[in-house]
Amino acid sequence: MGFDANVLREALPYINRFKGKTFVVKFGGKVAADEATLDSFCEELALCAQIGIRVVAVHGGGLQANELSQQLGIKPKTINGRRVTDERTLDVVKMVFGGKVNVEILGALRQAGVPAVGLSGVDGNILTARKRPPQVIVNLETGKPQTVDYGYVGEILDVDTRLLDTLIEKDFVPVMASLAADEDGDIYNVNADTVAAAIAAEMRAEKLVLATNVDGVLNEHGKRISRMTMHQMAALMTGGQVGGGMLPKLEAAARALQAGVCSVHIINGMKSGALLREIFTEEGDGTMITLNGYGSSVKPRVRGRA
After folding, report:
1. Hey, CA dihedral for 251, 252, 256, 262, is it positive or negative?
2. pLDDT for res 300
3. In this structure, what are the phi and psi dihedrals at residue 160, rounded to the nearest 5 degrees?
4. How many Cβ atoms sit within 10 Å of the Cβ of residue 303?
5. Which parts of 124-282 fold into alpha helices (H)?
């Protein structure tokens, strides 16, 4: 394969702009489940870190947790894309998120030449949470309201990124599992999109990237929406055009943008090269969401992913 100078020429302005900026990149269990896919995605993360981007990785592991739950005879339960976590399920989540998935990501990043450190929100009091109280919601499957007790699912009360900052300054890539604790040390499962958004907001990140298994936010014809504002995103949500696992992602995107994150990107982490194309090309590869249509307060001269 020949070297394409145009690819590097297009990427160079973005490389220069993003050097020293913080990217929070969240990816789910489906990206981590296949070894080749995980290796490819971690190579892209490694490249971002090696050119000077401050990378924080956040991961879930819902697919792996479901598999282990079924092996143990525990039936997984989710409502509107969010996991209901009883005591037995919490044990599974701790084993999978804080153990299996986290270590496999560390191994893939090591193979890619990046020193990484595995963490959860419990480490260094990064995340302080409380139990989510029972909520009355409209079940998107039935269309009916119901009261839901999510069990050992946490809501984030406070974020302390000192440990993350220390690791990044020493050229480590933090890899965070989406677990948190309250002041009494009780452990909670927290939605990984929510964790990533909270970390990105506290660190005033340039970008929050949510890697999933679809090509981005899709319109009513099933086509990818390349760019949208938060107002346009809100219209999709209130119009009932998105649901399931995409809903918490868009809710997380809204919180991050309101807190000052410049842009949120939803990409297909199963596709090789999607992360790099989304960040370093004008066309992108997923859906870029900004507060007002631009990635910063200054209107760019040309359309781009910056």
Report:
1. negative
2. 37
3. -125, 110
4. 12
5. 162-169, 192-202, 230-238, 246-258, 274-280
Q: Please report whether residue 163 resides in a domain.
A: yes
Distance set, CA 1 to CA 4, 34 (Å): 9, 26
In a domain, 189, yes or no: yes
Q: What is the pLDDT of residue 142?
A: 85
Query: Following DSSP, what letter does each residue of 132-143 receive, concatenated?
Result: PPPEEEE-TTT-
Query: What are 260-273's pLDDT values in tens digits?
Result: 999 999 999 999 99
For 71, the domain range is: 20-290
Distance CA 175, CA 223 (A): 32
Alpha-carbon gap, residue 31 to 63, rounded angstroms = 10
Q: How many domains does the chain contain in total? A: 1
Please give the model's pTM, rounded to 2 decimal places. 0.90
Measured CA to CA, the distance from residue 13 to residue 36 in angstroms comes to 30
pLDDT at 298 (0 to 100): 34
Q: How is residue 150 written in tokens?
A: 């999510």
3-class SS of residue 45: helix
Going by their DSSP bridges, the two strands 179-181 and 187-189 should be labelled as antiparallel
At residue 303, the pLDDT reads 38
